[in-house]
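Hi R.,

Here's the chain you asked about this morning:
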Amino acid sequence: MWIPTEHEKYGVVLASFRGTVQHGLPLEIGDTVQLLEKCEGWYRGFVHKNPNAKGIFPCTYIHLKNAHIKNKGQFETVIPTEDSVITEMTSTLRDWGAMWKRLYVKNDGDLFHRLWHVMNEILDLRRQVLVGHLTNDRMKDVKQHITARLDWGNEQLSLDLVPRREFSMVDPDEISVTELFKLMEHRHRKKETPVPASTHHLFVHMKSLMSSNLGEELEVFFHIYDGRENRPLSERFFVRLNKNGVPKSPEKTERQCTLFVDLGSSDLRKDVYIVVHIMRIGRMGAGEKKNLCSIQYRRPFGCAVVSIADLLTADSKDDHLLKVYACTTESEWYQIHENIIRKVNSRYNLSGSNTGLAVSLQLLHGDIEQLRREYMVLFTRGVSITKKLGFSDIIMPGEMRNDLYMTLEKGEFEKGGKSVARNVEITVYVLDIEGQVMKSYVAAGSGEPGGDVYHSFVLYHNNSPRWAEQIKLPIPVDMFRGSHVRFEFRHCSTKDKGEKKLFGYSFVHLMQEDGRTLPDGTHELIIHKCEENANLQDSSCYLKLPFSKANLPGNNQAVKGTKECFWITSFLCSTKLTQNGDMLDLLKWRAHPERINDSLLKLKEIDGSEIVKFLQDTLDTLFGILDESSQRYGLKVFDCLVHIINLLQDSKFHHFKPVMDTYIESHFAGALSYRDLIKVLKWYVDRIIDAEHQDHIQQVLNATEYIFKYIIQSRRLFALATGGQSEEEFRCCVHELFMSIRFFLSQENKITSPITQTQAVFLRTFPAVYGELLKIFTVREVAGFVRETLGSLPATARAECPLEAVKLHCIAKTVESQLYTNTESRCILLPVVLRLLQAHMQEQRDLVMCARILTSMLSLVRKYDSTATEPVVSEEVDLIVDSLLVVLMRTILEITNRPQAAGTNMRLQFQDITGEFVACLLALLRQMSDKHYQQLLQAFTSKDDLRDFLLQIFTVFRILIRPEMFLKDWTVMRLVTNNVIITTVLYLSDPLRKNFLNDKFDYKVWDSYFYLSVIFINQPCLQLESFSPSKKKRVLEKYGDMRVMMGCEIFSMWQNLGEHKLNFIPAMIGPFLEVTLVPQPDLRNVMIPIFHDMMDWEQRRSGNFKQVEAKLIDKLDGLMSEGKGDETYRELFNSILLKKIERETWRESGVSLIATVTRLMERLLDYRDCVKLGEVDGKKIGCTVSLLNFYKTELNKEEMYIRYIHKLYELHLKAQNYTEASYTLLLYDELLEWSERPLREFLNYPMQSEWQRKEYLHLTIVQNFDRGKCWENGIILCRELADQYESYYDYRNLSKMRMMEASLYEKIMDQQRLEPEFFRVGFYGKKFPFFLRNKEFVCRGHDYERLEAFQQRMLNEFPHAIAMQHVNQPDQTIYQAEAQYLQIYAVSPIPESQDVLQRDGVADNIKSFYKVNHIWRFRYDRPFHKGTKDKENEFKSLWVERTSLTLVQSLPGISRWFEVEKRELVEVSPLENAIEVIENKNLQLRMLIAQCQSRQMQNINPLTMCLNGVIDAAVNGGLARYQEAFFVKDYIVNHPEDGEKIGRLRELMFEQAHILEYGLAIHEKFVPQDMRPLHKKLVDQFHVMKSSLGIQEFPAYVRASPVHFTNGSPRSSCRNSVPNIISPDGARVVARRSPLTYPAVNRYSSSSLSSQASNEVSNITGQSESSDEVFNMQPSPSTSSLSSNHSASPNVTSSAPSSTRGSPQLQDKHKHSRENSCLSSRERPVSAIYPNPLDPAQRATPHQTGDTTLPRSDPNLSAPDKGSSAKPIRSQSPVPTSRSPQKSSLPPFTPSPTECQSAGLVSNSPVLSGSYSSGISSMSRCSVSEASGTEATTGDHSAHQGPTMPNSVSSGSDELIRRENKTPPPYSVYERTNPRRPVPLPHSLSIPPSVDPPALPPKPHQQRTSSMKLVPASDPRRADGVPHVPRPRPLPRKVSQL
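And here is the predicted structure, written out as tokens:
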């Protein structure tokens, strides 16, 4: 039985559990689980990361942990009872784990590895905490390390900033919002701006000296030197080196490493240096020979200098190699470092070329204790401390130091009877009072222990030596008295003995008789001469002698006159000894009472460092004097006390304040002093108003804090001694004192008055007195003092008065004081604080301080649980709300609306103050309860006041929601803000409903409410879907989903509006739509029904809801492109609204609206998904095309349509689809006209006229057509632009345009163009985007792209797609599959411009354009066997399944692929197939022969191979197979209907034989000599072939050779003879053709035929390897549909020249044009003169594919199968077209693109439907009369032509078909030019209109105009005689405003 768990609530999974049992819950090791129930060794519960999945698991897999439970029961929350840092660490590491893996996937290796190391460190630290063996200090350090790493990781991963206090996360509900803000700000500032250290230290590590001339021991001295003041800043650091130049004691690191401590920030400058002096220990001369003398001397070696500024850039301990310099002259040694610094090169040189000092230098920052923690290894290994000369910038109390520094400066010595100068060495001894040498008190510097004696270095032969050598004498204080220093002078002989001979001495006393030490400075000492063997052991014999010339009595002239002197400089750095006599006099006041007055006066002149040394003694002296002579010296003692107190305010002595505090608490004994102190203080305060000079009084008031400390302590001591006597007297005195203070504070003075400044001084120090008063007075009494004192301040506030700022500072310190924290005192002080604060905030003054005060106040106001304090808190909140709420909101509004300052500091301050005020407002609102809101709302006396308040608070809330209000990672703060906002809004909803509905409705308030609600829901910080699971869970547990709460509130308020809803339609549609797009199901379910309500109310008002529809559509695009919305939303929107409108009367129109919006969503979602892809691909372009079409055809949204035109244009440019880019931009160009109408600025277009923009578009399109090598299309636009320039007489631009046009013609003829392949692609399955799903397209491939490459590209674009391996149409299972299937195979284009391709003499460069441009139809052939397969002759049963595909638009167009609109399937019989094969081969032979004859062929090989292939195949049974198959009696009997076709096949075979004969004749003429044998063989084989066919003599109709040209030129043949007559006798051939002959290439593969048939086919077609360029092959669908179109080249049953990609057969309409060429212009139909545009209607008929014929027979005879009689025609030579269309003769059959607009540039506009003949789109501007006029003109022409054209349908029916499909016909550039409208010209240039056309060649627009207006009413290709359906009149065009 399952029993609910009581204590077993929380556990961790020890081992993974698969959960394979029934109801089992899978577990992973490390998961945390919550346990709900238990039963016989099993638990039931859930994993915290997925609380919705509950199941069972074994108890043994779980490690239980202690936990406490919140909300026990069904919705209980279990929290483990462990250290909060551990809990945070665990959850954070879980979150990091997932993100860490994603970093690996993103290839962010750097952060991946760094995070990995940090995670491991945290885990190690976690183990240490969990073990529990750490001391408290160590635990604190570990937690600090953990939190630092957690914060670092969160910052790196862009996670939230965690507010902490004492390393633990803070619960925002348990502290005030102001405290939370302070914590967040502190954490941010700590992260952003580290506080610069004020103390610095230099670490030096001596490593070695490298030099070639070593061999003696060395001494190295380091010190820091001030180059500006030319003095050392530190004592010396001393290192001994051995003969190899390395430290003598390498094991003792303190002997080679030092720390120069206590450098100030001012010392880190460029002119402060590290100076190194090096001494050698050895012989006098470095180069002397070794002698027996063992005496060694200290001699100068070298000096090195480095600037300390060079170390500031070094991040770590850098090694430096310092150059060592030596003196040029030894006597300059004392200043060598100065010379090096000043770069006096003449006085020093390099010690050696390879001499260098290797040292390690590093600057460290922070106080010494911090360094001990951070560089623990450094201090544990040992490092000597080198002190600064003198005290540091900050003197710390308790610091013990007593160092005397002496510098041996110089000496003056006599020769002493010597011929040369002496070598003088000084020996220094320190002797005590008894004359004994002090041991270890003479030190050369830090680093080495002190010695008993010090030897100076020796300068060679120098009687005026200058040493400048510093020594340190660390003598204890108690040994100073009576001590002296003796200097002994010896001459160092350089003779063999090397003796040091004593010749004199000097001495100096360290302390004077009065107790003062040796003064700092330079002292000139007397050198007393002595004998070499003089005994100086007895110091008493010389101490009585004078030691200094300054102390000599005036009568001792003998000593004064001596030349020998010795100078030293002394400097004492002592915390105990003084050199100041005045200080000693004061301390010994009892010995000399008469000097007290002078000593007190001189105290102010004594240096502060001397006073703080003896602070306690000085204070004892002062209070001793006060106790004994208060009447006489009271005022002066008070002044001295004030001086000392103010001295401690100095930053240098600031740290001595605790010393004084300690003195007051522990040592002060003046029990009676309080009376005198109060008395003197009151005396000073009473004199303030009358005093002329306020300086001294201000100093007194500045010391008020410590004066009160002495007063209070003195009174406490008195009360303790007397049992509390004189209490009333004391209170009375204090009250009187405060009365005096209040009186002087209440004085109003001028701003510049000294009294005002005195008031300010007192207010600064006053808050510090509160704590002292509380030691004697009660809280209420002290609060009374403070209230009355602050209340006495003048009420009138002047902004410029400095006292106002000081008042606020005083208030701030009051609020932050201990006094204010007490509830009793707070109630007393709050009114006066609020009064002053309100005054400042209303005037917007000192806002930084106001924010500080308010923050402190509200930090103390919390909701207490105890009922005792709750009324007090409530009362405080009442007071603050009444005084400050409105002012606070106004302040926030003004601050946020101010322009931000330019400076960074000002901007930061601005942000800080805004954040503080916001935190204060939130804290105040969070404290407000129902009662407070009621009182607040009742306080508004009028509706206007309430309205203003609501508008103000809603505006403030909108500001608080702004993303920039808080930093990005302050999610905790944002959530608290949102919680307060929604709580407040819920409180304010009720008064909004009660006061501003019905008659009192106020739109502005309601609009502000709804706007706030909408932006509240859309905040990024509330989108829980983007959070990690753990974060989402935390937010939901604490706050719930606040979006749903606000959504419900919106719905509730909307329902209350009633008829006022109409005020918000359509304004609120966009905002509400944005809310519904939030991916929260509950919110969507609540908000979507509002749209039904809006539709209903709009229907009631207007009878429709067009506004709702328009707004929805406008907003959807922008919102969905921002990433909002999803497929679920689309389905929900559709289902909810359809359900809502079921019973409405307007249901039908509602369904239409919903369907439209839903379809738009489908396309927008597809578009968004495509745009997310990184690279430009067909999917993205196709999706944009689909959306663009939808906006135009279904929504008619012109602006959106144009926007997507430009998006598509950009995509094409990025993909380098320049032709498609041109067609795309053409769509926008077509919306504009050549007018001067001004257009607004739009997208990247400036404000300009319509003409200028259209001109710019034309030029851009031409440029892109040029880049896409589509020059023919560019020519059309050049012509149109040239017309405009010509009409404006802008000849300069006209000439440029003509030159551009000419350059395009040149490019057509000179540059090679690649012909692209075309591929049919089917997209099947539900997983494809909507615009592709279950549709088939034809795609135009890239240059050089073949089938395999295209297939791979498609599979890359759709990586989840499955390639189908067959070409059959898929069944429904594929269509409905939840997958993606791709079906891809190559297709052949069917060119429309057959007449161009068939014309002789047209260059291949020109033809290549028409083969692959403006292609609507494509074909694919698949061979198969029907019936029984004849193994002997497979051609009997070889049928072809021909699939024709018709597109919605022609290629190329605005996309590289277009959808297939119509699919037709036709089966071609074996006989028809044979006819096609031979027809194509005959055509190929004709073309090659003609090229060879006209010498267009450089190489005769193609003709050779083609002849060889045909003749050889025929000999080997090629044509014989056809004879066997179709000419046998059985076939003729069984297929009587094929009689004509059999005859046609026979004719073609005879015709081929005759062409071969003629071809051999041409071949013989041009064949090279080496190929003559092959030619002879071909001739022989041809005779065999003729015999096999039974041909002895050709019939007459065959003898008319199709390739014989009378003058050898195909062009002249075209002009002078009937095209198909090739023999001189002119016999005519009947043109016979099957209705099922198709003008394109047939491609088969070997898999469809047996090998025998394949060989036969190869023989028939004569296909060979070298003829690949002639033939094009199509793979059989029976093989893989993805196989290359180059497969199986020999196995082809039908072929045609590759340059045509299809049989160049004339279409019937063009044949008809030729038949009409003999008629006069009056007799001919207009269409014969101006050929019709290619009518896409022929694609709408089921059997039209074969409506073209080859010019293989006489055109005078119609085809027999059409049953029409032959009509004779004569050849028509092309003549230049005349200027008038009425007088012109027939133009060439296919005009050039600049002459005829019938079959040219098709601008594949899927959206611009309209009159096809007029060329004006539905968006173009045309009048109804124009349209009707056009139709009337074309109505009576060509009525006789209808029956002669069997396979055509009128363009009118085509219009109907297109309208049914909602896809308009394409729009051609050739048709696009309207009759040019008159362009206004200046009066000076205006000319009368001419009746006749100008004498210029015809303009394209003239021909286009004619062709547009004179179109037959019925299409000549109609076969069924259906009357022409009149087209609907085009609507007046909405000209683009963009």
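One quick note: Confidence is low (pLDDT under 50) at residues 863-869, 902-909, 1596-1937.

Cheers,
M.
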